[in-house]
Amino acid sequence: MPVMSGKRAFLDLLRQEDVGIVFGNPGTTELPLMDAFAVEHDIRYILGLQEAALMAMADGYAQATGKLTVLNLHVAPGLGNAMGMLYDAQKAGAPILITAGQQDLDYLVTEPILAADLPTLARPFVKFSEQVNRIEDLPRLVHRAAKVAMTPPTGPVFLALPGDILKNDADLDLMMPTRVAPRMRGDADAVATAAELLAKAERPLIIAGDAVAQSDAFAELVALAELIGA
Fold first, then answer.
1. 44-47 and 69-74: which strand pairing?
2. Which residues pair with 71 in a beta bridge?
3. Nearest to 43 by CA among 12, 83, 74
4. Which of 127, 138, 200, 130 has the alpha carbon at shortest distance from 166?
């Protein structure tokens, strides 16, 4: 296994997950990542000056592309500023990996300013929320977060990245991405019951949501509307 820094490993893990853009508003705890981005340019870093706007940008990009999108925030205030738009991303089912820098682990016992229990702050609005407390766990947690974000129903996930995890070196097995297949078949009896109800409807009305576009099901929706006279 190669010896590498956490910051280099993190970017390599994002490449494995087919991430080409990272949105972010960095602070001191993100300096190791900024060092990595300064010398590696195949992942584009889009800087924003306010976390709510960045959260909305990442949300829109994730919904438009359907790809895993990464947003990098700065400690507790940065995550806090993004919360309102994170709620929107959750309701939209946007597959976003949100990371926030955390103070160094050996520094946390002093209760430093800007530090907080970041996974607990994020948990109500994400599918998965953890902090990387050992550099050896970084690959497993990044891949798990990405897998959970992309598993239907898709949605945002969160990882806290302490500064020393990004700065330190270790023998790391980067592992490989895995996914849960998105295709699933509905229950035949329930589909038959729904069809019977629709066939008997006198004034059927269709209210279609985002899932129609995400599943590329416009033609099927039109056929259904014409068939039942909606």
1. unpaired
2. 23, 98
3. 12
4. 138
pLDDT in tens, 134-148: 999 999 999 999 999
Place of tokens 């599943």: 215
Neighbour count for residue 12 (Cβ, 10 Å): 18
Helix, strand, or coil here: 58? helix
Is the entire prediction scored with pTM above 0.85? yes
Which residues lie below 8 Å from residue 194, measured CB to CB, with a gap of 6+? none
Three state DSSP letters for 97-164: EEEEEECCHHHHHHCCCCCCCHHHHHHHHCCCEEECCCHHHHHHHHHHHHHHHHCCCCCCEEEEEEHH
pLDDT digits 0-9 by tens, 60-99: 999 999 999 999 999 999 999 999 999 999 999 999 999 9
Confidence of residue 218 (pLDDT cuts 50, 70, 90): very high
Backbone angles phi, psi at 161, to 5 degrees: -120, 95
Q: How far is CA 15 from the centre of its chain?
A: 15
Task: Tell which residue, 78, 73, 114, 75, has the closest CA to residue 96.
Answer: 73
